[in-house]
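Q: Sequence in, structure out?
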Amino acid sequence: MDRFERQYILPGFGTTSQQKLRDSSVLIIGAGGLGCPALLYLSAAGIGKIGIVDGDVVSVSNLNRQVLFGQEHIGLGKAETAASIIQEKYAEITVDAYPFFLNKENILELISAYDLIVDGSDNFPSRYLVNDACMITGKPLVFGAIYQNEGQVAIFNAKGIDSIQYRDLYPTPPAAFEVPNCNETGVLGVLPGMIGTMMAAEAIKFLSGFGETLEDKMLFYNLLNHGSYQIQLSKNPDSESLRPKSPQELLQMDYEHFCGLDIQTDWESVIEITKRDYPSILVDVRAYGEQPEFDELNHVQIPLDELGNTSHQLEPYQQIFLFCQSGTRSLKAVNMLKKHYPDKMIQSIRGGIVEYFRK
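A: Exactly. Output:
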């Protein structure tokens, strides 16, 4: 019995739609909470070629929502591991792993090789980069996002440049500290599972011509009460003025700066700088008693809600490096301190404590 029989006997689907899936290719950006369920269902549905791009490795904190992976995969590359698992399950499809992060130098060539893009990234620079690259190359883009108990799904650029794009919703990004990630706010693993599955459904419908897609619409879903609704999207006159229109303009874009993330640094750079005699200080802005305890490096603790009243302690230092659990509160702290010390170098450490121990 053909493993796709239950699909093509579905009224309105048939063998023609199944063949369209077999002839299609999909690139999944991020083998995370959204990408894993999308990958499982797209491969099970019979998509002929699937690419997985992710430069990260599996960590234990991923396992509640990144359902492709288990304990035995901790420390392994996500892209290669996901590709190996899917290829073993479905030997007849082509699965390609790209074990790196997308950037403006590699994205256009990569997405040009696929019919449709599924964006499971979880940060604003990546979302704007993917959107802009899809607009330049004319690729349809399935978008999904989660925040605490809510999720969103949409399909952008479904009919080329005149279609709704991500920038029509968000011509400019919110302040970096205004939108925490899962490391900061938490998430029940079932929510990205549901949203990722909805993303797979949109890709399948679009590629097969079956049913009605979320073109020019966005679906909102609330896990707590199972409430959902759709809104009709419209073109934003400001979106095109901000978007790069050519590969050359894309290369000139600074997405980190555009999204306000040039005030970030990494642990490696901070450790090197603090070894020097230059007056610098490392500040933990988490609340007192917050776990895990951090006694790895010489630092002071000033909780975020006390920072405004105690910032005078930082007066002697020219370089101030701030960290928290995952990097969100420390971004807010940077903005607070910049008002007091506009001439000092003040940076948030990307990924916070989570990233330090992951490394």
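The chain is about 35% helix and 20% strand.
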